[in-house]
Structures are given as C-alpha cells and as structure tokens.
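Supplementary Text 2. Reproducibility record for the structural model of the 221-residue chain.

All settings were left at their defaults, and a single model was retained for analysis rather than an ensemble. We include the record here because the model underlies the residue-level annotations in Supplementary Table 4.
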Amino acid sequence: MQSDIEHVYHDTEWGRPLHDERRLFEMLVLEGVQAGLSWRTVLARRGHYRAAFDGFDIDRIAGYDLGRVERLLGDSGIIRNRAKIEAVVANARACVRMREAGEPFGAWMWAQVGGAPQLPEWRHPQDVPAKTAQSARISRDLRQRGFCFVGPVIVNSFLKATGMVNAHLQDCPRQAECRRAWIRWEASRHARFAPLAAQGSRPILGVSPQTDAPCFPIPLS
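Retained model, structure tokens:
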C-alpha cells in the first residue's frame, strides 16, 4: 500500500523524463540513499536533503571537504550514513569530471538508453525486474568513472524514476502522460536547435575515454 507521499510522487513525478543535470543528480542521490530503506522514508526527508546539500548544486557539493561531511553526519534531517554522504561528494566530483571531459552526466545517461525513453511491455508488477543487463552495464561504466552507490538495482531504479525507462504498467494512465511529456520536450528541443540546423550546425555529444577511478577513500581535504 502506497503512502500519500508515494502516491503523489508516482502520479506527478515518477517516470517523467528529466534532462536538467541538477534534477538528475538529485535523483541519483536519493536512489543511492534509499538503499536498504523504504522510498517513503527518503521522500519524507527530500526537502531536508535539498537544504543540506545546497539544492543539489553539483559544483558546490564537489567542493565539500571533510569538515562539511562531519557536519552532515550531525544533521538529523538526513540519513546519517558516512558511506552514503561521502558517495554524494564522490558522485558530484565524478559529474564534474565528466562535464570537463565533454560528456555531461545527463547527456551521457540518456545516450545509454538510445536517446529516448524505452517503453517495456510490462502489464503486471511482477513483470518489472529489479535489475537488467542494461542497468548492470551502466552500473559498471559509472563505477569506472568514479561513481559510488550505483549498483545495478539502484541504476535500474534511477532509469525508471527519471523517465529513461517508462516503467508505468500498460494499464496505468501515467504511462501515456509520460510519453506525452517526452513528445513535448522533443518538440521544444527541435525548436531550439532549428536555427543551428539552418546554419548547418548541430550539437555534438563528446565522449571521452573511461577512467578507472576508485570510490573510496575519497580525498576530502
């Protein structure tokens, strides 16, 4: 049985395509925090997480030092788990490295699913897998880029939450709503890039070689 906060989240957010890097990072953080906990618990603390982590500003979080981590460990409004807090910092730094290498996190993630939401033919809750070969591959690639708390199950949940995989069941009215949200975004994107196309230019997603950065310990000096 879903709680009220979970029901509202399902109907208004879950599965709607996200492209803003900060929003995507927020969902990556929350999905990682949720490991071992209920989603209801995480949603109830979401507002405090936004306040505690500077609105999920990636560049600010990437600059957190050990002192900031220690203060977060004393914040009762968030899950006070050192590994999870340090993972937020490590993942922000990994996002910065990706951006500097010409492969922004959001653009890279969308490229992993083919650039558009995938639409599995799931009819029943038991049809929905906890992890997939795709989420395992993405998990491996993220770890090679220095991300933490990005196992195949977490990545699969992230893909569904951000609309990269439209996981609403076929008889759920939200499935069509999420599809329409994607169509609207595509239309606006084409409108923005139409002038570039007329000039013979187009945006290019740069891809850099993978790095094999370790997760822990992370330097917090």
